[in-house]
TrEMBL record:
Organism: Ruegeria denitrificans
Record function comment: Catalyzes the phosphorylation of ribose 1,5-bisphosphate to 5-phospho-D-ribosyl alpha-1-diphosphate (PRPP).
NCBIfam families for this protein: phosphon_PhnN
Pathway: Metabolic intermediate biosynthesis; 5-phospho-alpha-D-ribose 1-diphosphate biosynthesis; 5-phospho-alpha-D-ribose 1-diphosphate from D-ribose 5-phosphate (route II): step 3/3
Primary gene name: phnN
Chain ranges of the Guanylate kinase-like domain: 4-178
EC number: 2.7.4.23
Protein's name according to its UniProt entry: Ribose 1,5-bisphosphate phosphokinase PhnN
Residues given in the record as ATP binding sites: G11, P12, S13, G14, V15, G16, K17, D18
Catalytic activity: alpha-D-ribose 1,5-bisphosphate + ATP = 5-phospho-alpha-D-ribose 1-diphosphate + ADP
Amino acid sequence: MSLAPVIAVVGPSGVGKDSVMRALVARATGICSARRVITRPEGEEGEDFDRVSDAEFQQMVAQDAFALHWPAHGLLYGVPHAIEEQRERAEAVLVNLSRSVLSQAQEVFGDLIVISLTADSEVLGHRLSARGRESMAEQARRLARAKTPLPTGLARVIEIDNSGPLEVTVDAILAKLQPESA
């Protein structure tokens, strides 16, 4: 039995990764999303995730609880091994990843498709401001990192501009995924 591909959704802060993932799961039967473990402080929400302390996260690392884990933006992120069970049941599993771990993710998961979301810098700035999670200085740092290139050597990358309506983005992604799943 072959495992379903992992679809890594990546892009700069504010590009709409979580919204795109929710919309893809709602529209495409057979696609599910992996739940991440994050050391995000209380009061900072976002996607559906499991909140843990730094000490709990480190204990999970020591217990080999993650298929993949990484630090970013002062937080720790992990994808539990449960993603492998999801890959046995689904047609594809979405996961929000950092661009910095894509090469490692390709090694870990093998069949990896990268959806690289972009948006105009004005759109990104507005979205970051609207979500209210970061200070103005942190928003400026995140906007400066928006043009960070993807690592080289990735097998399959789909680039999508998410500056416009969500439905247009989802339509474009599903159209590009169709040849992949045929």
